[in-house]
Every structure is written in structure tokens, then in C-alpha cells.
Amino acid sequence: MDTRSIQHPRHEAPIADVLECIDEGLLWLDRNFCIAGFNQAYLHLLELDAFTPLIGRPFKELLQQFEQEGDQIDGVDPAKHIADCMHRMQRQEDWQAIRIRPTGTVLKVKARPLPDGGYVFTYTDISVESRAFEELRRNAKATVVAFANFSEHRDTDTGAHVLRVARLVGETARLLQQRGHFSGILDDAYIDQVATASILHDVGKIATPDRILFKPGPLDAHERNTMRQHAVDGARMLTQASLLMDNSRYLELGAEIALTHHEWHDGSGYPNGLAGEEIPLSGRLCALADVFDALTSRRPYKAPWKTLHAIEQIRSLSGRQFDPVVVEAFLEVVEGRNQVKLVNWQPEMSVGNTHIDEQHQILIDTINQLANAEIRNDRAIVAMIIDELINYTVFHFEYEEDLIAAANYPDLEQHRRIHQGFVRWIRQVREEFTYHSRRQLGSEILGYLRDWLRKHILGEDQRYRPFLDNAEND
Questions:
Q1: Are 35 and 62 part of one and the same domain?
Q2: Considering the domain boundaries, does residue 112 fall inside one?
Q3: Is it true that the peptide bond before 78 is cis, omega within 30 degrees of 0?
Q4: pTM metric for this prediction
Q5: N or C: which end of the chain has fewer CB within 10 A?
Q6: Residue 462: inside a domain, yes or no?
Q7: Tens digit of pLDDT for each residue in 59-109?
Q8: How far, in Å, CA of 290 to CA of 165, rounded?
Q9: 145 φ, ψ (degrees, to nearest 5)
């Protein structure tokens, strides 16, 4: 029996012939939200068997099938997406979504109500466009990071600080959006842009003298004024760059953040003494992320604070330095980061060097946060953490190799090859994840990260410890 003739009765043949000439997949529902018809492109794009009975099947069941097969809705939990679809259809609303198939195919889905109470869905394969956009997005981020590194290059963990700040800004903005705050500002595009733009928050420090930037004690009035000038300097540089780059939204927001992330909620900040909602949301978001990461990181003039201590400090400044609404979301993000731990720091992991031990603890924290983001199925944050992990491992490996080279460690080249192998592997994981050939990291990848780090710190890294001890004694 001709299955196709069943799906499209003879009296509709001319319309059916037209529909089969369309590249976009089409699916339409009756007023009870059951499948009334489709074209062959729909079967192809959704990878459905042509002999699978669909007519009369509830659309909700089909969505549940896709979820079980591993379909992902960009930025949305699949179960929530199904509930949202049904709710929108009941209200006869238009909407659209990005559906990512387990094979990596990216589909743009548009839904529109029909006059009789049914619905029509169109499915367009945008895999090529999606890859091009992602490459453009990554290039823009790489450019922003390179720009920021001109000012951050004197920090002890070059590049890592700005990426951690960007993730905190993005996570906090996303949670605020989910809670319905700042609805006139927080859409998906803004969240992506403000997170990337926050990387540029301290670019003006490139003009700040080292004697002031790294002074271990308190600054005098003149030095303090010089330090504060970095906010204005950064905004000016980024504004000029934005004009040269055809009004780049990343640079526009970057200039806004550079100028305002030192303003205080009560009006006692700098450079313009803005207060409350006079401070752009971008500046309020970055202010929190920047202070928290600065508190919990080592600087030439201070040791890192424990996370709980930093949280207490942030909470104490709510309503004074920081917007209370933003603080509430921010602390929820931070406190939820380590619900699951793949690796725990243990005393026997120490190699006897404070800086290396701290760097190892940062790598452990990063992998634990990666596992938590994976459990939440938060692809955007997983991607950001992978970037952090690559950036920080490269920095850490170079630092470690320089240290053990100075200590005349005889197996340096073998150690370097192990490092290089790991970097190649994690970059390949990023490539697969970014372009959807790997939908999730999965337990295999997370298990490998856990086992590799434990083995490397407790094994290979312990072998150079005697040489560090001898170098210190000499």
C-alpha cells in the first residue's frame, strides 16, 4: 500500500505535490493538536521512518519521543519546552525555537496557529548558518579576550580572570531572566553580549603604572586617583574601537561596563557617583563578578579568600555597593556551583609549592563546576567552562614547566608531552561540543577529566617535587 497516499488524500494531490517540492519540513496539527499532515522534507529533517504512522498521533507524544532520542532545544530544558509548546498552542501564539538533533543537525522551528484552531510548523536546516555564526561568535570572543589580555597580562593567571568574570556575568544574567527581572533588557542576545563584553572591564588598566597597580600597601590620594582613571581610559578606548568596528555591540557594552563597574549602588563609587538604576545593568552585573573573582584569586598584593568568606563579604555589601536584586541571583549562582564534586583536594596532592598547589585547586574547582553545569544540561555554561579550562591549563602548564625547568627536572620533555597531549584532547572535545557532534560531555569525558587530573597531580607532578625542594634549599 502507498503510505504517502494515505498521508495525503487524492483530492489534495496538487497541494501535496507542491509541498513535496519545498525544502523546509512542514507539519500541521488539527484543533486537538494531533498530527493532520506533513511533507517528505519533514520526515527527512526529523529522521523519521516513512512507514511510521503519524496521522492522528498527539503532537505531545512526538515531542516526548524526540526528547527520549536525545533532541535538544537550544537554551531550554526539553521537558520544559514540551510544556511551553502545549501552553503556547492553547493560547494560539506564534513562537520559534532551535532544535538540535542527536546527529548535530540544527533546525529552526517556527509555529503558527491556523484559523481552524490547528497549528502549522516549519522546519529549516540551519546547520551551515549555525556553524558560521558560531565561528563568528568565537572569533569575536577571541578578539575581545586578546584585547583584554593587553591589560591583564601582568596578572598571575593571565586571561583566566576575565573568562571567569564573563561566566559569572552570563550565569547571573540568565538566572535574572528566568526570574522575570529586567525583562526589558534581558533577552538571549543581550546575555551573550554582556558576558563577552565584561571581559573588557579593566582594559583601561593598561595605562596604570605597575608601581600603583601592584603596590602591596594602601594607595595615597594621588595614587588612588590615578588608579581610578582606568575606568574612564577603558571606556574611551573601547568607544573609539567601537566606532572603527562599525559600532560593535560587544565593544559598546564593553565601554559601558568599563566606565560603570566601579559605581556603587548607594552612589559612593566612581568615576561619576551614579546610584541605583542610574548604573547600567551591565555595570551592576560585572561589578559583582569582578569583586568576587578578585577576592577569591591570588594577586601580587594578596592571598586568595575562601569562597564562603567572599560570599559573606558580598552579602554584607548588598544595598550598599551592589544591587540587592543582582546580589540575590549572583549568590544563588555561586552557591549552586559545587553541589557535585568529581574531585576533592587532598593534602597528599600538594607538591610543596604554594602557587602550583593553588593552580591545581583552581583546576579541580573548574572541573567540578563543569560537572555541575553538565548535570543542569546548560550548554552555554559548559562551553564557557571548557574555554576557561583550556585557557587555564595552558597557563598552568607553562608556569609549571618554567618552574621545573629552573629546578633542572630531568623528565621535563616527557612532562611537556603529557601536557601537550591533554591540551590537544580537550580542544578536540571543545570542537565536538561546539558544533553539536557531541550533544553532552557525558560520564566518559567527565570521568576521564577526573581520573587524568588525579593521576597527573598524584603521579607525574609528585615526581618533580624533590627537585623543587632541592632548588629551594640551594
A1: yes
A2: yes
A3: no
A4: 0.78
A5: N
A6: yes
A7: 999 999 888 887 877 666 677 888 888 999 999 999 898 888 888 888 999
A8: 6
A9: -65, -45
